[in-house]
Amino acid sequence: MSTTTGKTAEPAPAPAGPGRTPLPDAAAEPRGRRGGARKQKPMGVQNAAGWLFSTPFLVLFTVFMAFPIIATLVMSFTDFGLRNVTRPWEAEFIGFENYVKLFGDEKFLTSLFNTGYFVVVGVPLTIGIGLVVAVLLNNGIDRARTFFRVGFYAPVVTTIVAVAVVWRFVLDPSDGLISGLLSEVGLTSPDFLGSEALAMPSLIAMAVWRNVGTVMVLFIAGLQAIPTEVREAAKLDGASVWQEFRGITVPLLRPTLLYAAVITTIGYLNVFEEPFVMTQGGPSDSTLTVSLNMYREGFNFFHMGYASAMAYVLFVVIMGITVLQLRLLKDNTK
């Protein structure tokens, strides 16, 4: 006598074959049919969320960047001065008078020449020394490489006050480091910061010392991006160190080289801290730069409209040189 259970077994699905339609599989059904998929939010909601999270930045940018830039441009066409600080709407519109006056101002032309001198001498020195240091740290120095990298980069993150203290000690004509070294061989140290001929070269040396670390980091990154196979092939072909540097390293570093030149040139065209802290533009305006002259006109003499015009002339100069350099970068890296 056979016994049966109350639960009957379900028949197994027949295998799919020719002429047979496979049974639907619940796991293969689209997620939307099972109600498990999340509906995508409308594009308007996503845009609103993006603008909401961007609002703090937009407010800060508008208040501290966009508004001052536009206000400065407007002020450059007025005689805005100290009397207009509390009543800016009373400033008189004078058109391009400030810009015309600039190119007849001997002090501005002197500051423009000094800034050009600073750039023409300082940029090649910074780029050249930074490249040499980067090559040595990347290939020539095996021990304590990290220590040297940190040492060369330390001046970049050092405040200008600390730098000024160090360089005043080094350049002091009576008790400075250079004075002590020269006195050992019976020579007298010149007054580096008090001489019209030596003041600007001294500031250039200080600026190069401060900025070599930034250029060095850029070049090290560029050197490490050069394929080792290229160097090995050059060595197998019998290339010397100089031939490898001139024929492989420099051409492959051209994008990094021009980028470093762009940012260094922009920084040196805006040079302000070095003459402001070390020489105050002296002696006899030999270290007066455009930025320092602009500061004096705006905040010492309160000729704010005139200083604004000076700022926009410097802006146009920076833009022109930058566009030229970027075109050179584009043309040489295709």
Short characterization:
The chain is 65% helix and 0% strand.
Question: Secondary-structure map with pairings?
Answer:
Elements: H1 31-34, H2 43-75, H3 97-102, H4 106-140, H5 145-153, H6 160-171, H7 177-184, H8 199-224, H9 228-236, H10 241-252, H11 254-269, H12 273-278, H13 290-300, H14 304-332
Helix pairs in contact: 2-14, 4-8, 4-11, 4-13, 8-11, 11-14, 13-14
Give a structural overview.
- With 334 residues, the chain is an all-alpha fold.
- It has helices at residues 31-34, 43-75, 97-102, 106-140, 145-153, 160-171, 177-184, 199-224, 228-236, 241-252, 254-269, 273-278, 290-300, 304-332.
- The radius of gyration is 33 Å and the shape is globular.
- Residues 1-9 have low confidence and may be disordered.
Percent of residues in helices: 55-70%
Poorly predicted segments: 1-9
Q: Report the major sheet.
A: none
Structural class: mainly alpha
- With helices defined by DSSP (H or I, 4 residues minimum), what is the helix count? 14
Beta-strand segment tally? 0
Classify the beta-strand content into a percent band: under 5%
* Average of pLDDT: 83
Ends distance: 92 Å
What's the alpha carbon Rg, rounded to whole Å?
33 Å
SSE order, one letter for each helix or strand: HHHHHHHHHHHHHH
Which outline best applies?
Answer: globular
Labels describing this entry:
disordered N terminus; 334 residues; mainly alpha
